[in-house]
Write a structure and sequence with these properties.
The structure is a homodimer of 397-residue chains.
Chain A (H helix, E strand, L loop, with lengths): L8 H5 L10 E5 L5 E2 L5 E2 L2 E8 L9 E4 L26 E2 L4 E2 L4 E5 L31 H14 L5 E7 L1 H12 L4 E7 L7 H16 L8 H4 L4 H15 L2 H7 L19 H14 L4 H13 L10 H4 L6 E7 L7 H13 L3 E7 L13 H18 L7
Parallel strand pairs in A: 5-8, 5-9, 6-7, 9-10, 10-11, 11-12
Antiparallel strand pairs in A: 1-4, 2-3, 4-8
């Protein structure tokens, strides 16, 4: 398929529109369609992204951060929708483990998302109405293909590092398998090379909760002026439990009652953990599109790198020269360490350079987003060593 | 409160009504109110139950089986609603671990349930309409108090054994704490003396799914001719995942597709695990009342024996002469072995006779309902030894 010459990011920066959340947009027109795994071409489409730090003259210091299921491109600066800090500001910024004085950080909203990149809430150019379920299904490889088009558009031939946790880690693995020459180093965190039956099951519960909401309207809620908020909130609540460990919930809430010492003998949010979950559900529907939730969970369910390579994960990584660091957390039961070990074994079988760390934490899957000094030290150390190997300059100053 | 003289079970057998599922009913009139933990008296009310085997002349061979969240009294014979075998026929019957040639087995539907015992779907005598949410909240101690009234009605002073798994095990522990003289032996399986924050969280998701369904109608769906089936199905799906282990789901379904080898790129039930879950949800709404689900999950959430005894679980069991056997399963993450160990430690501190077995199984919480030879052997052996101590005759024949 025809590919336009790379254009500098300034082109896109100039295209910011007042009617969209602040940020950068890369638009791909009829001359640059994206052929999806579902077998159809998506065109036109756009990718919303943010950048932090400066791309050096050699274009050798670009770090691509891949976000998780409900994340977005606002990784290290205020989110214009929620007004909250970026979702990984603890990790990314001047002097932080991913040091923006040193690296040029790119983070783009995934295909199928709802923060500016083309997704089911975007207008279908053929009708002018929101796609809804008429958007073809999206896969993790599709998301990565779109990111690769963005990276090329930015004039970058090789990413210094691709990293991310959870679904972000799936994208990292897909990058490493599919674009071997474009990935100098890769840091997949709390992730897996395929989604497990249990994880598919939890996602299916969330989807059924959304689709059971009459306000979902067969996916046409945006066109019909409705919102399946109740169903989406239930989906979020169920998922949120899986992000935390039993121990984290025990420590945070235990069996403590809300506002009093005894039960109310009602179905009010008696326990603090109930109140917390309800809040999580309510806050989520303010910032996320229900159909995007269907699309992105489905993408994770379909993810299975080995299946795409004749059943062999090692084959997927054959010939790789990427430097890998794999990280898992002891209390993560959504993407348990065993999943990471499978990736490590496959990389070893492929002769890759790989280090592996299982971090002791009782915070569950969400540990990758939280204050985990060992994760910060590992990330900083891995990037430092890769930078030396890449011949990058040391920290600025 | 006044108590009527015990009547033989035949009295109730005569009262079977054609408009209710086949089975026994014990009715408690205005002279026998049940004072609930919520602070109000429930009267009149009824308990639906089944019996298997024969009560001996000494009335010393009665075994009370307590059912789990969505179980019922049809433990060892066909269920008249579903047409399926009793839920624990693998365990209970002639020559089986709980040998009905030897023991008189009683199983009653819990208070708040929907299989004949008074619950939110029962008619409020004051209005003639289904209670819905006007029924006071029910606790596990309330359920056990109602069972104790049934046992006394049957003329039984001491139960040879009280046993059950999951919420059934909670009732066993409550029996042992509250009716020390009535319980010769107790076998709580895969259970806990208090519900964890994670378990409360999962229950809250289920309740929110039901209450989010517009057909729930604020709990008045029966009066208004509606049914919150979609919400109840989602609740069941979410809960069902917690009954199985990650490994059991992997072994049963893995990532296998339904009916074909490749994804459909749709939101159909592509994976076998999705189809299975949807079926579980659909089948459940055919047999269970949504408000009962709210009430019974709430009862489990409130359960905390230690809290009812000044914060000390050992104090709850002080002075007990009951013989205990505690059983857990290695892959049960809903009621993990740590929960059982806490009970064992408290019983030891109370000077009780207690044995403990953690059974190696990868089937998850539901292992207690499945073909687990070690569970059968432990149950048979524990009952045999207790029978000798009780001076019961050996197996018939």
């Amino acid at each position: 398929m025809a590919r336009a010459a790379p254009r500098p990011p300034e082109d896109d920066m100039a295209r910011r529109q007042a009617d969209e959340p602040a940020g950068l947009r890369a638009r791909f027109g009829p001359d640059e369609p994206l052929v999806l795994d579902a077998g159809v071409a998506l065109s036109p489409f756009q990718i919303a992204y943010q950048t932090y730090g400066r791309l050096n003259a050699e274009k050798s210091n670009a770090v691509l951060v891949c976000h998780a299921l409900t994340g977005d491109q606002h990784v290290a600066s205020d989110n214009p929708v929620t007004g909250k800090p970026g979702w990984w500001e603890i990790m990314i910024g001047p002097g932080k483990p991913i040091d923006t004085d040193r690296y040029f950080v790119i983070c783009s909203n995934v295909l199928g998302g709802c923060m500016g990149t083309t997704g089911p809430a975007s207008a279908d150019p053929a009708t002018g109405e929101a796609y809804g379920l008429t958007l073809p299904l999206i896969t993790i490889p599709d998301m990565v293909r779109a990111q690769a088009m963005l990276v090329k558009r930015l004039g970058i031939d090789t990413l210094f590092c691709v990293l991310g946790g959870s679904m972000g880690g799936m994208q990292v693995l897909q990058w490493a398998a599919e674009y071997k020459d474009m990935v100098f180093s890769a840091l997949p965190i709390a992730t897996s090379a395929k989604h497990s039956a249990q994880n598919i099951a939890f996602h299916e519960v969330g989807r059924q909760a959304i689709m059971a909401d009459p306000q979902w309207r067969g996916g046409r809620y945006l066109v019909e002026g409705a919102r399946p908020s109740a169903g989406l909130a239930v989906a979020r609540m169920a998922a949120h439990i899986t992000y935390l460990s039993d121990m984290a919930l025990h420590r945070k809430f235990g069996r403590r009652f809300q506002d009093r010492d005894a039960p109310t003998f009602s179905f009010d949010a008696d326990f603090q953990v109930e109140s917390y979950l309800r809040y999580q559900g309510e806050a989520f529907v303010e910032r996320f599109d229900a159909n995007s939730y269907l699309y992105v969970t489905r993408a994770m369910d379909y993810f299975d790198i080995a299946a795409d390579h004749g059943g062999s994960l090692a084959k997927a990584f054959a010939g790789t020269k990427t430097r890998f660091c794999i990280v898992s957390f002891t209390s993560d039961w959504l993407f348990p360490t065993a999943d990471s070990r499978q990736v490590v074994h496959a990389l070893n079988a492929a002769g890759a350079s790989v280090s592996f760390a299982e971090i002791a934490s009782d915070k569950g899957h969400d540990a990758f987003l939280l204050d985990e000094p060992e994760l910060f030290a590992i990330t900083r150390g891995f990037l430092d060593a890769a930078a030396r190997a890449r011949g990058l300059a040391g920290p600025a100053g």
